[in-house]
Amino acid sequence: MTLFRIENLRKSFGGLEVIRGVSLEVAQGQRLALIGPNGAGKTTVFNLINGYYRPDEGRILLDGQDLVPMAPRLRIRHGLARSFQNIRLIPHLTVEENVLLGAHIHAGGMLAQALPLFMGRGRKLREQARGLLEDAGLTAHRGALAGSLAYGLRKRVEVVRALMARPRLLLLDEPCAGLNTQERGVLMEELQRIAASGVTMMVVEHDMHFVGGLCDRAIVLNFGEKIAEGTPAEVARDPAVIEAYLGHEPEKYAHA
Ligand SMILES: Nc1ncnc2c1ncn2[C@@H]1O[C@H](COP(=O)(O)OP(=O)(O)OP(=O)(O)O)[C@@H](O)[C@H]1O
Ligand SMILES: [Mg+2]
Description:
By secondary structure, the chain is of the alpha/beta class. 39% of the residues lie in helices and 25% in strands.
C-alpha cells in the first residue's frame, strides 16, 4: 500500500527552477533514500513536504490526503515528523524536557494553545517520553542537560523527539552528518528498530554505506530532476548517477 506520494512537484526560487517535476512513492513501512549531489534539491523536497515552502505545482499526498493546502502544524498532526538538521535541542533543558517538546510541536506549535492539553495529558506525555527514551537505550541520559551530551547522543535524542509526534512518515535529513563510524552504527540500529515498529521513512543521506544498510529503495536527484530509482546498490552503479556525482567533488562521496 502506498502511504506517501509526490506528483509532479515543481519549485522555483527567483527565476531558477530547483525542483523540476519530481514524482515519487513510498509504500507503508518502506525506507526510501533521497540522494544526489550537493544542491540537487533534496532538502528543498523536505521543505516542500513539511510546508516550509509552497510548491508552484504538484501534489503531496499522505494517505491519500493532499498536504499542500495544510499549515505545517496540521501536517504534523496528520502524521508527518522531521528530525531537523538546524533546529537543535535546547541546550539548557534536560533530554526528557527536549523530548517532551516534541509533543508540544505535535500539539500545535503554540504553547498557549498546547497548555491546556499539556495539563490534562502531562503525566501521560511524560510516560510516553520516558518510554521512547528507554526504547532508544537513552534512559541513563534522561536528566542530563541536552547541551552537555556528545554530538552523537544529541542526534539520537533528536530522533526520539520526532517520535513524540507518533509519526507515520519520518523525514531524516542527513542523520549521519558529523557522526563517526561507531556512532553511525548505533544510529543505524536505532533507525532499524524504529522502522521495524512500523514507521515509514524518507532519508536524505550522503553515506551510501548507511543508505544501503537502512533503505530498501533510493531515488537520485540531480539539478532538481529524478535521474534514477532502484535499490541502493542498483542506483550506486547506474552510469547516470556516477556521472552526476563525478561532476560534484567526488572526494566527498568516497562511500558511494
Ligand atoms: N530559499 C531559497 N532561495 C533560493 N534558492 C534556494 C533556496 N533554497 C534552496 N535553494 C537552491 O535550491 C537548490 C537546491 O538546494 P537544496 O538545499 O535543496 O540542495 P540539497 O540537495 O539539499 O544539497 P546538500 O546536499 O548540499 O544539502 C540549490 O541551488 C539552492 O541554492
Ligand atoms: Mg540538503
